[in-house]
Write a structure and sequence with these properties.
Length: 157
């Protein structure tokens, strides 16, 4: 097995994200690996919300403004999360993208030549079957690297 040099970490800003990032940072520190913290703004949801506007130019302007504002907010949240969770000795980068979360995470793994993906078994949704739901399930099926899923539900109580 090759040495793990880069660890991609799915960060969805749920209550589980700080613990996932901290676990990934501790692992990266032991392995002398770099963290790539990834967040994806699911632009499809936003498109559905403004889909009732029929004027295409108005839609595009609203979407562009909303996406720019959202990306700025996510950068601020990511920096705060990194500052509170990441030891200073660990090398890291942050990537925030728009699109379908599982597709963008897979692209980051490929683009950044990550060797491991760490995610939470639960995310922003609170469905009982999240583990078998959309993003996590697709990542398990399609990730070209090992996926480490952390079940952190007990740590909240």
């Amino acid at each position: 097995m090759n040495r793990i040099k880069r660890i991609a970490v799915g960060v969805d800003f749920s209550v589980y994200s700080p613990r996932v990032l901290k676990y990934a940072a501790e692992s990266a520190e032991r392995m002398s690996a770099e963290i790539i913290a990834v967040n994806v703004f699911n632009q499809r949801r936003m498109k559905e919300a403004i889909g009732m506007i029929h004027d295409e130019e108005t839609c595009r302007k609203i979407m562009d403004t909303y996406v720019n504002d959202e990306m700025e907010k996510r950068n601020i949240k990511m920096n705060a999360l990194i500052n509170s969770s990441m030891p200073k000795e660990v090398s890291y980068r942050t990537i925030i993208r728009t699109g379908m979360p599982f597709e963008e995470i897979l692209k980051v793994i490929d683009d950044e030549d990550a060797n491991l993906l760490i995610i939470s078994s639960r995310g922003r949704t609170d469905f009982q079957d999240y583990m078998f739901g959309t993003t996590a399930e697709k990542l398990f099926r399609h990730a070209p690297v090992s996926v480490l899923s952390l079940n952190l539900i007990d740590e909240l109580f």
